[in-house]
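go over my protein:
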Amino acid sequence: MAGCSHDCGSCSQSCSERDFRAYLRKGSSVKKVIGIVSGKGGVGKSLVTSLLASKVNKDGFRTAILDADITGPSIPESFGVEKLRAETVEGEDALKPVVTDSGIQLMSMNFLLQNENDPVIWRGPVIGGAVKQFWTDVIWDNVDFMFVDMPPGTGDVPLTVFQSLPVDGIIVVSSPQQLVRVIVEKAVNMANMMKIPILGIVENMSYVKCPDCGKEITVFGKSNIDAIAKSFNLPVLARLPMEEGTSRAVDAGDVESIEMPELNEATKKVESLLQK
């Protein structure tokens, strides 16, 4: 409305639409923002985030990860940089992201803690504020694609990200268990309510491939992800196997070495956003 101070916290008016957008500081550049979401925890959002960022980076694009899982960050350990700390920009109230050997820019709560094992015991609004500051107070250097690794559910952080960041699309991560419909439905409904485009679904832990005969074994039972995706008119972008090598590489902080051809379609979907 006319004369709005944009200070919603002290405003008594009831506006139909409020502008909660946060803006990058001078010197930062991010072209496309992709949210990696799920309706529940433990389905592999951080793994999918790391793999996509690495794969798109190998294709010649400049990528970054904003680790929005403030209380349970796992991105630094996956990239083997958990002991590093974010540096302040001299003369400015800003931070430089940690950069991996291949050039992926990372920002996570673990880079700001004295001890990486210190718990972050904050209430929701404070956590949301920290996520917003990762966007506004970090000097992001000419990023083509930023992947936002979100905590599970539809609470403060996803709301903050959807309202504050210019999210160009989300990828929903699910698993083959019976709860999959609930997982997908919660994430899809929130995205639709916030008018955020959904690029598709990635099913993690889809199967185990027998090392002897190559047969795909569905450990969690037959997946019904195709029917669920069809009911929401969404594409299934990938089905990721459970592999010992993947787990070993992540535990060793070497996620960038993982080759995951199953993510080719998801990668193309993401990269196509720059062509629009």
